[in-house]
Amino acid sequence: MKYLFLIFLLLNPVSYIVNQEIRQSQEFIFQISSIILIGAGLAFGNKSLKRDKFNLWFSLLMAWVFITYLIHLSGWSIAFNAFLGLMIYYTALKTLNKQDIQFLIKGISWVAGAGVLYLALQYFDFDLRGIVLKDQGITPHSSFFALEAVMGGYFAIVIPLLITFSWTAFLLFIPLIFSWSTGAYIGATVATFFYLWYKRRILFWWLLIPTISAVVSFIVFIDNPMGMQGTRVAMWKIVTQDSFRKPLTGHGLDSFRVPKMKGDGRYLKPVMNNKAVKAILTDEGLFIKGAPSREMVEKFKLDGKIFDFWDHPHNEVLWLFYETGIMGLILLGIFLYHLWQRFIKSKMSKETVASMASIVALFIFMQTQFPFHLARIAHIAPLLLAFFYISTNNEEQILI
């Protein structure tokens, strides 16, 4: 099974379908590869799982996502992907052991290494993906991750894992600069220092001051001039207010991107300033609330001249509140509590600390981006959780 998991980890970040939209093609590949992996796990799984609160609350969180789909009957793809993620997690628990974790981490290092090499080739104007996907427009310098921030998020997540067998993982901070993502850079930094605090305390103190200086310089001189921070804060304010309009069950899965009920909104960014505005769905179409001319937006087409659409709030926690309601936040909070309790009561092995650090990086990154809605990153999330769970259990504890 570890070889099937290896293929899963190698396939999802790099695969594309020619002449298909990138996000849809990678979601399709994630779903197919997940089904194959889960099916193989049913054939080869040989462990019975211990019943504990950690798995209970994680399962309840995923169940609530699916219940939200049943309440609103919208967002089937999101509900299905959440179900697949849960099943991948349990498949890993039933088929992998501690020795397999390092094997799979090395496989992840191959993806990271290939990503750095591909990024270097892009800067020399060679991009095989850009040549093949002719209908995708200009390809940014983002390796094979399609978006710079997504590339940064992947590097941020895997750096703590790769440190467990090679300190060359620190070199990933160099290509991370080209992600232009504060969330990724801070996530990688905090996660790395999290690992060093528990496993290399001397290095923690030696690197603390120069690293803080580097992070502040990145935010001030690289990310802040792009103006995205102010825009997102303005949007988060509006989205938070709208989340309280339907606090119990939320607006429904995928409602942020595609409003379906009259009165629901879609969020836009004027290209000339950092303010966010909201468009309300009416019988006639989308009506921009607060626009000076109170103009109508027809068929979502603005040609990028006046407004850019936000198809996600760029904050997964806020997304959870907006689309699944307060119950989603409560279940997430309880799950995170049990995650932390399990960590502090563990023996703090390098696999445990590294996987927990990667989860920390992912959590920080998802405050400014949407990794759980992109298969390029989302595929690794259930395995990070599985690595953590397996590393905190003796074989005898897993078996009933």
Could you outline the blueprint of secondary structure elements for this entry?
Elements: H1 2-14, H2 22-44, H3 53-72, H4 76-95, H5 98-122, H6 128-132, H7 148-162, H8 173-176, H9 182-199, H10 201-223, H11 228-243, E1 265-270, E2 277-282, E3 285-289, E4 296-297, E5 307-310, H12 316-324, H13 326-344, H14 350-365, H15 375-378, H16 381-391, H17 395-398
Antiparallel strand pairs: 1-2, 1-5, 2-3, 3-4
Helix pairs in contact: 1-2, 1-5, 2-4, 3-4, 3-13, 4-16, 5-7, 7-9, 7-14, 9-10, 9-14, 11-12, 12-13, 14-16
Class of secondary structure makeup? mainly alpha
Q: What would you call the shape?
A: globular
Strand order of the largest sheet: 4-3-2-1-5
**Stretches with pLDDT under 50, minimum 5 residues:** 290-305, 395-400
Helix share of residues? 55-70%
Rg of Cα set = 21 Å
By DSSP (H or I, 4+ residues per run), the number of helices equals 17
Strand tally: 5
Series of secondary-structure elements, N-terminal to C-terminal: HHHHHHHHHHHEEEEEHHHHHH
Largest pleated sheet = 5 strands, antiparallel
Strand content: 5-15%
In whole angstroms, the N-to-C terminal distance is 21 Å
| Mean pLDDT over the full residue set | 82
